[in-house]
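Please review this one:
***
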Amino acid sequence: MQKSHRAEPYKIKMVEPIKKLTRSERERLIAAAGYNAFQLKAEEVYIDLLTDSGTGAMSDRQWAGLMMGDESYSGSRNFYNLEAAVQQYYGYRFVVPTHQGRGAEHLISRMLIRPGMYVPGNMYFASTRLHQELAGGIFKDVIVDEAHDPYSTHPFKGDVDLLKLEKLILETGAGNIAYLSLATTVNMAGGQPISLGNLQQVRQLTLQHGVRIIHDMARVAENAYMIQQHEPGHQHKTVAAIVKEICALTDGAVMSGKKDALVNIGGFLALNDQGLYEEAKNLVIVYEGMHTYGGMAGRDMEAMAIGIAESVEEEHIAYRVHQVHYLGDQLKDAGIPVVNPIGTHGVYLNAAAFLPHIPQVQFPAQALTVALYQEGGIRSVERGILSAGRNKETGDHHYPKLELVRLAIPRRVYTLAHLDMVAEAIMATFKNKDNIRGLEMVFEPKYMRFFQARFQQVQ
């Protein structure tokens, strides 16, 4: 199949040199890092697909915005520019800046969760679920079953299963539901979007029972693009209009500006309820900083305000998703097992099918991240049993149905030629897959173990 090329909607005016080390050097370095790519130095990585969070390239307008930073301790004009951007493009009334999305997750969890309350969601994300659990909440997955099937080609695998959600509400009582945690798109399912039609039905159900929807909107523009492209009846709408429609169906949002908003640090909590806003303003002073900066420099708030506007530009978002599908389609054509359909922020390798000889307790997805680094200097991240953590009651691992490796593509950073090299390295790894060994964990931190765990290869 001929590769589908699409020209970048930008030109490059600054470059950062990268260097590919020898295979023997890479083998030595990943072993010294405890077979965990998070522990590698950035200079030891050739193509870094560890995450798309905070790793994108800012525009000339954003860099110019940095020079307009007002670093006043209180009332920075950059806060009001950010507030105006959130109100214009997302429609939420109130904004509380945080140092990144995790700070917003912490605030909303402390505000809305009482011990023993349930937090349903369309699949978990590690930091989100951890904050919910630290506040005493119990996460319940209410995503459609297709999301757990890497072979399903359902176009909106981020959809909420309405029957699962209603069953939970009726069994526990609406008063015991802290809120519905709803992500656009769903990271752990492979960057899969939720449909607008499903969200409308979810909103109707939650209003009927008095349950809030808190929106994880880190990649809402990517989700809106997939609605525009694949959900009937929305092709005539702009991405910006669909983004605002999505947000209007929720009560508040946590945002990592390091994704859609195209900045390297920062986030916010957005709310419509003034009472919750006043509470959040008070809490943010305790944990982050004044409510008009919340752990961010004024210059970074300015860059985020500009990035929000850029994130919904049609050419930008179309090319951003095109790069992901460009890589995904090459791998599919080569017979590499990937999650279908290809999502929006990265390509997810199906590690269970890639390495069927490695049992799940030997961390096959983590082993595959090691092999990809050894082969091509590519840094990726595990999204399987390691990321799922342990069951607090039994002490055993959680055993997710999906055992994946995520290749997250930073925005406006790599060219299609870089992605060609990634594809070639993955194909070479696949040919040598039978020689890849499983791993055993030799160090396990208490929280979000995938960041700092260390391993040794099974002999």
